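Service request form, structural biology core

Requester: graduate student, group of Dr. S.
Request type: structure prediction, single chain
Budget code: on file
Notes: please return the result as C-alpha cells.

Sequence provided:
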Amino acid sequence: MKTRDLAILLDRPKGAVYNRAFSLGLDHGYSRAWTAEEDLIVRIAHDGGISITDLAAALDRDPAIVSKRARSMGLPFAARLRRAPRTPRAGREPVTRASILAMAGPTDGP
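Core staff response, request fulfilled:
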C-alpha cells in the first residue's frame, strides 16, 4: 500500500506515517535497501534508453530516488547517449523488471 493511501486511511499526515514506520523499524518502501538485481536493472535500463519514470515504476520506487541511485552508480540518465522514447506512454508496452532484464540478452551459463 502506498504511504499516501495509508495516511488517508489512518487520517494522519504522510510524514507521520513515515516517522512511525521508521520508529518501528518497518520498511515502508521509500528508503528500502537496494538489491544487486535492482542495481543491474538500473544499469540495463540506462544503457537501453528506458526513461527514469518507467524505470521507477518497474522498480516500484520514486523517480527521484532511482535517479539519485543511478547518479551514485555513475549512470546519470540526463547525460546518456541513448535517450528515452518521446512517444506517449499510452501507446507503449509497460516496462517491467522482467522486460528490462530481458534487454540484457542471454547470459553465459556454467
